[in-house]
Design a protein that fits this description.
This protein is of the alpha+beta class and about 260 residues long. The chain has 2 domains: about 80 residues, Arc Repressor Mutant, subunit A (Orthogonal Bundle); about 170 residues, GAF domain (Beta-Lactamase, 2-Layer Sandwich). About 50% of the residues lie in helices and about 20% in strands. The protein has 10 helices and 8 strands. The strands form 2 sheets. A 6-stranded antiparallel sheet has the order 5-4-3-8-7-6. Strands 1-2 form a two-stranded antiparallel ribbon. Keywords: DNA-binding, Transcription, Transcription regulation. This is IclR family transcriptional regulator. Pfam families: HTH_IclR, IclR_C.
Length: about 260
């Protein structure tokens, strides 16, 4: 987490900085990371290595990290799995969405995923792919950027204006050089929601990937989620996604909302 965000939080007397830093350490592990050393964790969290050493020691004692002595590195421990599993198990929307998502994945020959926001990323909490071998190599737990993906933009568009501005300020702070292009894409997505009831990313995240997405509330006071359909651009053209897939994605969301408790 960047210093600006922590600085803002420090002004809140109820904010526990040590706890926040410990959670930052856990959050810095990315899909594909087998293990990280204190130096790499310090760089990712923008913290002194001495501070990180104390945090990783404590998190290891509590089971949130596992220390690999032969490598001098850490991997996520079983306690983090228990937390994630408990949270995902309570999401009724996953069970309801899966058969509908698989049907759309088969129709589109792409991948249909359900995700939630974590800071400046979206995390997949459910994923269905067609039998087509050329779908994206992402799965449950994968992270994708908030600002450049259809799913992330849909989630941003669903937020109340004040909350969205807070997130946009954080994106601008952390990605200052890319901000003009990012802002243009996000603003375009807000217009797309008004015109098409969905958001798109045609080559904005990865040049050869196209996707559309819709955000909605899963009910029961839970945070909003977003559902996307995407894949290789040569298989899922902009026209196909907007004219053929979009109506089915809209119906999928309507069906879900009608069956959520």
């Amino acid at each position: 987490m960047d210093d600006t965000h922590h600085g803002t939080m420090k002004e809140d007397r109820h904010f526990v900085t040590a706890l926040a830093r410990g959670l930052d350490v856990l959050a810095c592990f990315r899909p594909g990371d087998k293990a990280l050393g204190n130096q790499e964790i310090a760089q990712r969290c923008q913290l002194p290595k001495s501070t990180v050493s104390r945090l990783t020691y404590t998190l290891t004692k509590l089971g949130y990290l596992h220390y690999i002595a032969s490598q001098g590195q850490y991997r996520l421990g079983s306690a983090t799995l228990a937390l994630g599993s408990a949270m995902i198990a309570r999401l009724d929307v996953r069970q309801l969405a899966r058969p509908l998502m698989q049907e759309l994945a088969d129709f589109s020959r792409g991948m249909v995923s359900l995700g939630m926001r974590d800071r400046l990323s979206m995390i997949y909490i459910e994923n269905c792919r067609s039998q087509n071998a050329l779908t994206l190599s992402l799965d449950v737990g994968s992270r994708i950027p908030l600002a450049t993906t259809a799913m992330g933009r849909a989630l941003l568009a669903s937020l109340p204006a004040i909350e969205r501005e807070v997130v946009l300020t954080e994106i601008r702070t952390t990605q200052d050089e890319q901000w003009p292009d990012l802002e243009a894409g996000i603003q375009r997505s807000l217009q797309e929601v008004r015109e098409f009831a969905c958001c798109s990313s045609f080559g904005d995240w990865q040049t050869d990937v196209n996707a559309i997405a819709i955000a909605f509330s899963p009910g029961a006071g839970q945070a909003p989620v977003a559902i996307n359909c995407g894949g290789p651009a040569f298989l899922l053209s902009k026209e196909f996604l907007l004219h053929e897939v979009r109506p089915k994605l809209l119906q999928l969301v309507r069906d879900l909302q009608g069956n959520l408790p």
